[in-house]
Amino acid sequence: MAETPKLSVEKVLGKLRSNDQKSRDERRSEEMDALDEDIKRMRAQRQRLERHQRRSKGD
């Protein structure tokens, strides 16, 4: 029978933690991107509202 290589518990935990950290970082990055898009959308909306208010005052 072929022997399977055995890893130490520390190495296995290290690999699991690094994978978990990567996925956490990716998730955080996606959340930040979504928030950036929300900020852009809100700024554009505010500018439209301000333009509309300026036009209304000019009447």
TrEMBL record:
Residues 1-59 are annotated as: Disordered. Residues 42-59 have a biased composition (Basic residues). Residues 8-41 have a biased composition (Basic and acidic residues). This is Uncharacterized protein. It comes from Bradyrhizobium jicamae.
